[in-house]
Amino acid sequence: MKRVLLFLPLIAAVILGLVLFAGIGKDPTTLDSALIGKPVPTFSLPDLQNPDRVHDESLFKGQVTLLNVWATWCPSCRQEHPFLIWLSKTQGVRLVGLDYKDTRPEALKWFKDLGNPYEVTIFDAEGKLGFDLGVYGAPETFVIDSDGVVRYRHVGVVDEKVWKEELSPLIEKLRSGTS
Amino acid sequence: MIRLLLTLLMFVYVGSAHAEAQDLYQFKDPGQETRYQELISELRCPKCQNQNIADSDAPIAADMRDEVYRMMKDGAGNEEIVDSLVARFGEFVRFKPAFNARTFLLWATPAIAVLIGLLAVAVVIVRARRRDREGAPLSDEERARAARILSGQDDRDRGTDS
């Protein structure tokens, strides 16, 4: 009995080590979205290119969608833009843009200069939908299922690694679940 | 001297910037303002993670302050305001996490550690007391020998002494 007690500090140290080791490599600045498993918040916002057209949450019903939150003032958005163009051209995924706290002329110029990867772009000048989605730093990308329910959020630039490891497998899973 | 002046100037500038930021909202009475200040100092900025939204300059913190102010004006209670922000940004924004199954260990660890410590101390004390009360027990043989020594009949001991 006494001998076993002698090993207690060692056991405690090993457990503490395991707990701390599990935290290594985790990025504390990426937070899980509070909206996962919940429907997209209700909204009513104009289209970026066609101001008379108004979008609401029904935009996300019917098929799996990638909702990309971006803005012209966001340098990382410029960085991820070519990859989004590639995604829309080659991967057959539905991309919806949310132009967040931006101005219309600058956003339209962005499309003219860099191309438009989005099927539609919601124009959120005051950042209202962004706020309701818990967006805290553009770019952010949400995976939304065909029922309009948020399934995943990626904070930061979407690149090949993020697409292959996080987004693409989930989209495949959601698609096979619904069809 | 110049360096000292510059340092002083720096503080003057910081002071005025702070005052400007606070003048944005109008409150009917000082109680409301205190409540507002308490609320924004308890909410954590998701962007500048170790700052509360009162201190953070991030645009998202400004949006969150706006929302707190707007909800207060609409007569919402503190719980309601915090819950609405938690629903958007997650438990993360609470500097005081709610007590539930997930945060049980977070809140209870200090109490558990104290309990374990008290238990250890109690065990040590009880053991020490028991040892004192019982003394070092003698076997029957030792008892008999002790009796012989006390009555002066043990030749072997006497032999070694002389």
TrEMBL record, chain A:
A Pfam family this protein belongs to? Redoxin
Please list the residue ranges annotated as the Thioredoxin domain: 34-176
| Localization in the cell | Cell inner membrane
InterPro entries hit by this protein: Periplasmic_diS_OxRdtase_DsbE, Redoxin, Thioredoxin-like_sf, Thioredoxin_CS, Thioredoxin_domain, Thioredoxin_ResA/DsbE_sf
Q: What is its main location?
A: membrane
Q: Which UniProt keywords apply?
A: Cytochrome c-type biogenesis, Disulfide bond, Redox-active center
Membrane topology of this protein: Single-pass membrane protein
Q: Which domain of life is it from?
A: Bacteria
Q: Which Gene3D superfamilies match?
A: Glutaredoxin
Q: Which PROSITE patterns match?
A: THIOREDOXIN_1, THIOREDOXIN_2
- Family affiliation: Belongs to the thioredoxin family. DsbE subfamily.
| Name of the protein in question | DsbE family thiol:disulfide interchange protein
Automatic annotation (TrEMBL), chain B:
Query: Which keywords does this Swiss-Prot/TrEMBL entry list?
Result: Cytochrome c-type biogenesis, Heme, Iron, Membrane, Metal-binding, Signal, Transmembrane, Transmembrane helix
List, as start-end ranges, the regions of compositional bias called Basic and acidic residues: 136-145, 153-162
Source species, domain of life? Bacteria
Residues making up the signal peptide according to the UniProt record:
1-19
Q: Which Pfam families match?
A: CcmH (PF03918)
Region Disordered, annotated ranges: 136-162
Coiled-coil regions listed: none
Query: Cross-referenced InterPro entries, in alphabetical order?
Result: C-type_cytochrome_biogenesis, CcmH/CycL/Ccl2/NrfF_N, CcmH/CycL/NrfF/Ccl2_sf
Give the transmembrane region(s). Answer: 104-126
> CcmH/CycL/Ccl2/NrfF N-terminal domain location, by residue?
9-150
User: Gene3D superfamilies of this UniProt entry?
Assistant: Cytochrome C biogenesis protein (1.10.8.640)
| Family from the record | Belongs to the CcmH/CycL/Ccl2/NrfF family.
Q: What does this protein do?
A: Possible subunit of a heme lyase.
This chain's protein is named: Cytochrome c-type biogenesis protein
Q: Which organism is it from?
A: Marinobacter koreensis
